[in-house]
Amino acid sequence: MSSYTSPIREPLVTGHKTYHQITEDLVSPTEKAPNAAWITGFLISVSLLGFGLFCITWTIWHGIGTWNLNRTIGWGWDITNFVWWIGIGHAGTLISAILLLFRQKWRTGVNRAAEAMTIFAVLCAALFPGIHVGRAWVVFYFFPYPNTRGPIWPNFNSPLLWDLFAISTYFTVSLLFWYTGLVPDFATVRDRAKGFRRKIYNFLSFGWTGSAKHWQRWESISLVLAGIATPLVLSVHTIVSFDFATSVIPGWHTTIFPPYFVAGAIFSGFAMVLTLMIITRKILNLQDYITLAHIESMNKVILTTGTIVGVAYLTELFIAWYSGYVYEQFAFFNRALGPYWWSYFGMMFCNVLSPQIFWWKKYRRNIALTFFISIVINIGMWFERFVIIATTLARDYVPSSWSYYSPTWVEIGIFLGTIGLFFTLYLLFTRVAPVVAIAEVKSILKSSGDQYTGPNAIHHGSHDDHSDAHHGHAHDSSTHADDHSHSDSKGSTYMQVVKDDLKKIEGIGPKIAATLNAAGINSFEDLSNSDTNTLQSILDNAEGNFGGNSPESWVVQAKLAFEGKWDELKDLQDRLDGGKY
Amino acid sequence: MTNFEFSGRQRTLLLSGIVLGLVCMGWTWMNDDPLHSRFWSNFLHNSVFFTGIALMAGFFLSASITAWAGWYVTFKRVWESFGLFLIVGLGLMTVIALGNVFHWHHLYHWTDTSILDASVPEKFDSILAGKAGFLNYKWYLGGTVIFVGLWYFIMTRLRALSIKEDEGNDKDFSSHRKMRVWAAAFLPIAGFTSAAMVWQWIMSVDSHWYSTLFAWYTGASWFVSMIALTIMTIMYLKGRGYFQNVTNEHIHDLGKLLFAFSIFWTYLWFSQYMLIWYANVGEETIYFKERWDNYPVLFLGNLAVNFVLPFLVLMRNDTKRKWGSLGFVAAVVFVGHWLDFFLMLKPGILHTAHEAGGGHVGGFAAPGFLEFGTMIGFLCLFLFFAYTMMSRTRLEPSHDPYLEESLHHHV
Amino acid sequence: MADYKDIVYGLYDDEEDLLKAVKIAGDKHIDIMDVYTPFPVHGLDPLLGLSESRLHIAGFIYGMLGTLTAFLGMTWIFTKDWPIIFGGKPHWAVPSFIPITFELTVLFASIGMVVTFYLVNGLGPGVVNPTIDLRITDDKFCIAFDTAETDKSSAESFLRSTGASEIHAKTI
Predict the structure, then answer these.
(1) B268·A259 Cβ contact <8 A
(2) ipTM of the assembly?
(3) What predicted TM-score, i.e. pTM, was given to this entire model?
(4) What is the mean pLDDT of residues B135-151?
(5) C120 FRET partner, CA 20 to 30 A, in A54, A497, B99, C150?
(6) Which of residues 245-274 of B touch C (CB under 8 A)?
């Protein structure tokens, strides 16, 4: 990783966090009792899940006839929902894997939750083929194993079977990737827990110690898993697209389907990540870790993938005309102007037009608007799958078998049930595991924390002086500060805390801490016994430009820190702006 | 050395390469069929190939600016210079486009408008009549001039702002912020228009055939070629003592791109091939059947050279950092993708030429010496132009906001 | 657990301090038992002289195993054991074997690597490793010495001289 950060980059961790504060902020949601919003959300989700289970039971008991599928329209809401959920399940591994390979540091704020989302979404998706096969109790026939029926094997030439392999592989690999990333963070939770809770988290953390060799292997395996998960993500939606594109049905058999499905999946996945993260950051108070910079970056991905999907829609439309193949031409005429025209226009509007608003920076950074558009895109991507599946099937080669399809209450209920399942699992996840990757955020703090980079960085030196080529400022400040602190800690007394981390005081960065140390202020106690005027004169006399830093709140903060009132200190710091009232 | 000096020796070498290309083209012309199918097909093949490389350099530069990437900055002048070649590409493709108007060549079956006349049923081609709204010389000429001109225009804006940054009095990064706007605009413009031009320039040589994936597949092929050429250019310039700040870390990342996009190209190749093979619709499979039956070596060699080789060699980390292995793969893959374009264009052109009573010359079944000679001529033209552009300003930028990140880059 | 170890460890507040200390230890040939950090610290591995991880090589072998299992398995089933005709394609329909071959390659490589990772690290469900200091997973960077290998007082003086904010002795 580059130790230098360009001054043009925005910080990704705000609030002048120390390592300890990061732990505190990210672990505390798992330690507190849930709030009313969480309980309400959970009850709603579980109710939806319950209704979904009822509808599934109803389907299995009475048969697929309880759905409105017919001879012409053999796939309806079931496969639409399946593809929709699989698509949503793409952003997690994408954020973790591709963004890791491309070294996009903003991924650290959202990767953990996105991976969890992936796993839950794939679970929701896998449900549909499971019940759609009709005889769900012999669904194990799918798996190739030596059997007494011949042995007869599944047809390995069938894209539907490829799909089974793709989705089970994707689920397994995502789970392994996610859990291996979680292990060190579970260890952090463990080391703050007591009693039975500690036992549980020790089990979950697999006995993690933080040894250097373990970290080295952990990084190696993360990188290799990211490397192979990247083509895996591509392959999963590619194979979903093969379910359609290997056929000879006009509107389905088109070669652009594989990459276009992948782009659409990333698009819908990011939309769902935005929906979830905007709520999560608000409820769990994670605005310092999932910043506007994160949201803006994700909106750029939304804009890009939305436009790619737009290129694909227009390519399909154009080539349908260009092909000179009347059935293909009719398929697209039917999509746009047939009985399901509302679905086609919904898809075009939601997926291609609505994200175009993110060309404007102002809107990319508008949280309410982003939330709204993310929902619009979720709906639009559902329409896309409905357009591809139901619209196409409703008008096949034989006009006498043309049909129209709308779902029964059972089909709607199962869909609602998967939404319930998804949110139930997600809400449980926010209680059990840190939703932001603790270790990974700590590892980018020095390069992306706002005390080190960006406009609020603490005495940043001459900000615009680029001719000073080989001495990056962030780099600079940390190493110099350490030099000072070393010279001071040499006189330490054995086995005793000799020096508090003054950087925990909001407004004090490494350089000021070093300056204060040099002036004999080493602990919170020392600082709380100082007065503001003395501190100001220490700053004024020190080398470097500390003019913008006001010590007015430091004494009060230090007193709280010395007395161990960390919660009060945190409340105070939340109200402070860079250490100023 | 902050400035690249385009030495007399290099000029002579590249100019003699260009002369070699001209000689080969002249030779081809004189020993050609009456339609000059071989000459024109080679002209189209190389023009499309190198114009596409220029487009991809501009496209990837824009993508990197938009994504706030920092690592590439120290050698960004290479991509800027490659991208500016679009002006030459514009000239080359305009020649082809004018050739459609004035019937200098017969590369595209659809340029024969007599088949569009429904009153002559024995000649009438209903499929091409249906496509005539798009496959006509006006669209071809207009698209080429307007779209390639637009790409070039945006490249010149990016270049001008990049040079302006070097002056160093840009305290609030306003030039860079303007570059972001141009770069962001370039992405969708290139995305939409390049597809249209690929259909015109390349896909329409098989004028009945169509594939929705084709434009992206071609784009991936161009992209890999561009990365391969970038690697070779940087290695050469480093060998001459330039680019001291471009380290093995940058080379390693370029190697990763070559590796990853070779796989991506294969993914698109497979998606297109497998879907057409599986559905087995005659109108579509004819494309691959033609190539499988008459070009088996190139057809399989395409996969061997452009997938198996980079995949196996570049899988390890150290081979992406060693100049020998990476340079070798880059060179082979570069030629490999040139052959990929050969395979996209020549069978269709040959078919058209046969129908018009020509095409009974060499250079269609497999590339001969004249094809390779022509390619060397175009390559030298490309490099001559790019080196001229590189020599016009500082080789390494001095005030890009991400420069420091690039100088401290570690994989 | 018969083999208890007497260790001395120092805690540092910042990874830069830790890196300097580890470098000094390397220069002075002081034998560090292990270093514990709350997150992966870049540049630490070469200073500690850790050899590069070979997990990716294992991953490659597992992956190849998956490739062969899938491809040869399907080949055997559809050319020998139970040949079927679909869509006029040959029995040995290579393009349609590719997707499953790819998936199993990835599956074998991932599972194999993750299992290997936990085995070689001695980690897994139910494993209880001795805790040196609870703050190592929070914000402290720890260098630990085994007093059986490094003299206790020299370890302590090393820690003190390199700026450890706390020094403790412990039996684990």
Answers:
(1) yes
(2) 0.93
(3) 0.86
(4) 95
(5) C150
(6) 270, 273-274
